[in-house]
Amino acid sequence: NVGQVQLENYTKRSKKEFDHFTQVSAPKLVKHLLAVLDNLERALSSAEATDDKGKIIEGVKLIYHQFKEALEKEGLKTIDPAGDRFDPYFHEAIMQVESDEHEDNTVVEVFQKGYLINDHLLRPA
């Protein structure tokens, strides 16, 4: 019975800590992303006012880098394993191909990048 009470207390404490963490971290991330949202709105307005495809593409690239930087500040890291040895923890195989150019168990092509958040797997590549 003592063990069950300790487990219940641990569960309650863990939930409380997790809830506190999300209440603190979510606004921080959203604040970073508000600047991205503002720039997207400006880019849409500019795109409607111009036919210069080059300027539109350059604006989208800048916003992409700003968005990526905001996520990286929160601990996001990209997994792009092309040419690396296959690791089932970080990679998800879609198919196997025969290749004289690569060693066995080598990632030949990446269809979708994977991501880590604070060194924990978020999505395999």
UniProtKB/TrEMBL annotation:
Keywords: Chaperone, Cytoplasm, Stress response. Homodimer. It is found in: Cytoplasm. It comes from the Bacteria. This is Protein GrpE. GO terms for biological process: protein folding. PANTHER family: GRPE PROTEIN, GRPE PROTEIN HOMOLOG, MITOCHONDRIAL. Its main location: cytoplasm. InterPro entries: GrpE (IPR000740), GrpE_CC (IPR013805), GrpE_head (IPR009012). Participates actively in the response to hyperosmotic and heat shock by preventing the aggregation of stress-denatured proteins, in association with DnaK and GrpE. It is the nucleotide exchange factor for DnaK and may function as a thermosensor. Unfolded proteins bind initially to DnaJ; upon interaction with the DnaJ-bound protein, DnaK hydrolyzes its bound ATP, resulting in the formation of a stable complex. GrpE releases ADP from DnaK; ATP binding to DnaK triggers the release of the substrate protein, thus completing the reaction cycle. The keyword Oxidoreductase does not apply. Belongs to the GrpE family. GO terms for cellular component: cytoplasm. It comes from Candidatus Hakubella thermalkaliphila. One of its GO terms (molecular function) is protein-folding chaperone binding.
